[in-house]
Amino acid sequence: MALLWTVISFAFSLLLTPFLMLLLAIIFLASVGKSLGVRRLYIKLLLALFEYGRQNIENVRKRNGTRDRNKNLNIEEESPTITEKDSTMTSPKMQNGNVSNSVIARSKDLILVPEPEMQNHKSHVDESSLKNDHEPSMMDDKEDSLNQKNSFEMVRSGFALGSLDYIRAGVEAIIEDEVTSRFEAEELKNWNLLTRTNRQYEFISWKLTFIWMFGFVMRYCFLLPLRIFLCFVGVLYLLVVTFFIGFLPNGRLKCWVNNQFSLIAFRIMFCCTSGVITIHNPEYKPKNGGVCVSNHTSAILDVCVLSMQTTFSLIGQRHGGFLGILQRALARASPHIWFERSEVKDRESVAKRLKQHVSDPTNPPILIFPEGTCINNTSVMQFKKGSFEVGSIIYPVAIKYDPRFGDAFWNSSRYSMIQYLYMMMSSWAIVCDVWYLPPMQRKEGESAIDFANRVKSVIARQGGLVDLQWDGQLKRIKPKKEWREKQQEEFSKRLKVE
């Protein structure tokens, strides 16, 4: 028994030693801000696997499509001939519970719209009537009846177009409007071997099944334990370091120490996602006394991505739980601004504290997400004007995540922070591009709202995001009364014109 226990202990130590060595190597490289290129090689391998999976899926679809066509041909050869009259009485064909394309094409005939063919036919009839005035009156009667029929159809068509305009707008808003779709995970064109993004491909062929199962074991049995340990080390390091930094007197020494150790903490924490960041235009990095604004996708990833390069003071809503622990730890080491979103008095004090912070050139730049909520990284929504009224230099930053490797969007109304971290650490990786843009200042006579929109458009254009004017708080609240009244006025104006 003692011999068996010794063998098991020796085997366990052999397995554990490489694991610990890997952890120490990752932590050391992260602390000095260096990389051996292993993660980028890992990303290239994943891209090759995704491309192979896409080709495999297309081949299977083509084979299935060929089989379906052959079956349909066989059925048509065996079935008796159906006359045109009988075909109109048959029920529509269904494909996977949906009406087939042929039925949809026929149903479009029910919509009364001006058709080029009918207009051409009408003009042809008119020309023939001019040429054939000497023909019998019977032909004229036929032409008159045809013209009356055409004019009647055109009247019906115009009525249908006028009434269906509003119905179509309402249906489009119900199906997919440009606001609520920004609060859901971004859809992928190709499958990334994760069942959370698409559940219909892992068993489409035995090759994809094998790759998916191997990836599942790799992510949950090797990467997930490693990432959880790295996250634990990073958070523990941050808590301990900020605790001791809090005892230092305010001044240059405290700022320098916080700058050195906070960079290490965020680099270790970001390693728990196997993250790869590509920095563009580093010469435009924010400087002390300025305001850095960025689009917002994740409450923790955005901060980690930007804080790996520059130490920031943060401004944001006060949270509880895991995020609350991090907020209190950060506040001990450097000046941060936390507020309650629902309290108006807090907003006034936040504006004063923000102006005081940027007025001191020794303070680190303050990082603000003017959207006020997380968007799914496909668009940029309305920027709050408060950040642009302080009269400081604005440093715009655009962040674009690659959703193929993992969805960085945090849907706070659906997932808690712990659930979100679990999804991040069980994904393939977090890959993103960061663009530091030239600093911007408010022009003379320019309002804070116009300045905010100008900065927002620059960020959206650089990051390849859709520039929207809607308020991101529609994620939590209903549209304001004045917005509804404005839409009602526009609707009434259109009715009067028509």
What Rg, in angstroms, do the CA atoms define?
32 Å
Q: Count up the helices.
A: 14
Round the mean pLDDT to the nearest integer and report it.
76
Largest sheet: 7 strands, mixed
Task: State the end-to-end distance.
Answer: 93 Å
> What is the total tally of β strands?
11
Name the poorly predicted regions.
81-139, 154-162
Shape: flat
Q: Beta fraction of the residues?
A: 5-15%
What structural class do you assign from the helix and strand content? alpha/beta
In terms of topology, how is this protein built?
Layout lengths: L1 H31 L5 H41 L5 H4 L6 E2 L2 E2 L1 H7 L8 H16 L5 H40 L29 H40 L6 H19 L5 E5 L10 E4 L6 H7 L5 E5 L3 H13 L3 E3 L4 H16 L6 E3 L10 E2 L13 E8 L15 H9 L5 E6 L11 H16 L2 E2 L13 H17 L1
Parallel strand pairs: 3-10, 4-7, 4-9, 5-6, 5-7, 8-11
Antiparallel strand pairs: 1-2, 9-10
Helix pairs in contact: 1-8, 5-6, 7-8, 7-10, 8-9
Task: Kindly summarize this structure in a few lines.
This protein has helices at 2-32, 38-78, 84-87, 101-107, 116-131, 137-176, 206-245, 252-270, 301-307, 321-333, 344-359, 417-425, 448-463, 481-497; strands at 94-95, 98-99, 276-280, 291-294, 313-317, 337-339, 366-368, 379-380, 394-401, 431-436, 466-467. Helix 10 (321-333) links the parallel strand 5 and strand 6 (337-339). The chain starts with a helix and ends with a helix.
